[in-house]
Design a protein that fits this description.
single chain; globular; 10 helices; alpha/beta; 8-stranded parallel sheet; 32% helix; 373 residues
């Protein structure tokens, strides 16, 4: 047993506590001042990219206070209020996209700013790309692009994964920890290749867009897994109840009301009505998630790696399949916002709706192979 400290007199104790409070307040104020000074360039770059000043300031300063001044430092140290060192390029690309019953030619122009050396490589060793993960021979296909977190639902598939690959098991259940849920989870207990469970994709706490999924049901499921499958992570991809320009995740799910470990955000920025990509939609999504009570360390970046086909977006157009340079900028934007995710998520390896996806693009596979190293 550890010894108790010697008791102080009441007056002395009050004096000491007051001094500690003042010191901690001073330290916090000092960090805040340093972040405001160091991050002026980062905030300005975010605003120039189309972000609202308040959202940009909140997101950048929040990351600085949590992760330190290096968030707003270039290779040569503090930028002292200047823009981070980098290069700006303007790219114009003409692509032809086949939609049902029509062929559309789109000219895409984008201004790309690279802010930090080595940007675009979040510090995570786990990379996930769902759909069509296994070929006709049962081999894990996304491995060719460096992905090592498999999309699966069966124990036999999990057991057959190659060395170095773990499984994120799809459940898609939101009835709480009932017998159906428990029977689905039990076979995976103790499996060394298990990473965790994908509880639901874009669950809806209102029942307006998808079947009703109360936070209390997900909390019961997550708690059961944490109690019975030690080390396993629980994950959902969040539904945005606003627009991609003005997102909100308020009154949906967060660690306080669901006990879920990880939350995917999918603000896909490349759209036909834009003629290219608006990367600021990623920035405002992260700020909205933090405002809804989701810590930065619980956010999973979902990268757009699909386009065309029969998908429609919320701006009256359809999603564009990113070019290699656009994908690199998507990765770099996310890396500046969520530098150390537990895993990252490329949607999608397999095609889902007559669209293009990673499995059919050697160009994007090369981008992700470099990133996933």
């Amino acid at each position: 047993m550890r010894e108790r400290p010697t008791a102080l007199g009441f007056a002395s104790l009050l004096t000491l506590l007051a001094a500690l409070h003042v010191a901690r307040s001073a330290d916090a104020a000092s960090v805040a001042r340093q972040c405001r000074r160091a991050c002026r360039g980062e905030i300005a770059a975010c605003v120039d990219g189309g972000g609202h000043h308040r959202a940009c300031r909140k997101s950048v300063l929040g990351r600085c206070k949590q992760d330190g001044l290096t968030v707003c430092q270039g290779a040569d140290g503090l930028n002292n209020g200047r823009r981070p060192k980098g290069s700006t390029t303007t790219t114009t690309t003409t692509t032809t996209t086949t939609q049902p019953g029509a062929t559309t030619t789109t000219t895409r122009s984008a201004v790309t700013t690279t802010t930090l050396a080595g940007g675009g490589s979040p510090a995570t060793g786990l990379h996930y790309a769902p759909n069509h993960n296994f070929d006709s021979s049962g081999s894990y296909a996304p491995a060719q692009a460096g992905f090592n977190l498999a999309d699966l639902s069966g124990v036999s598939t999990l057991n057959a994964l190659p060395s170095g690959v773990k499984g994120l098991v799809w459940l898609g259940l939101c009835n709480g920890a009932d017998s159906n849920f428990i029977n689905a989870v039990k076979p995976f207990i103790g499996n060394p290749k298990l990473f965790g469970f994908y509880l639901m994709d874009e669950p809806d706490p209102t029942g307006q867009w998808n079947p009703l999924c109360p936070a209390a049901n997900l909390l019961a499921e997550s708690d059961w897994i944490h109690a019975n499958v030690p080390g396993a992570k629980t994950f959902i991809a969040l539904m945005n109840f606003g627009s991609t320009k003005s997102p909100t995740y308020a009154n949906t799910y967060n660690p306080a009301n669901s006990h879920i470990d990880l939350y995917g955000l999918d603000p896909y920025p490349c759209r036909s009505e834009l003629g290219g990509c608006d990367y600021n939609r990623i920035t405002v999504a992260v700020a909205a998630a933090e405002a809804a009570g989701i810590p930065l360390g619980s956010i999973v970046p979902v990268y757009q790696a699909f386009g065309g086909g029969n998908w429609s977006d919320d701006g009256g157009g359809y999603y564009l399949f990113p070019t290699a340079s656009e994908e690199q900028q998507i990765l770099a934007t996310w890396a500046g916002l969520v530098p150390s995710p537990v895993f990252d998520y490329a949607y999608s390896w397999g095609t889902q709706n007559s669209d293009q996806a990673l499995e059919s693009s050697t160009e994007l596979q090369a981008v992700f192979a470099a990133h996933n190293q």
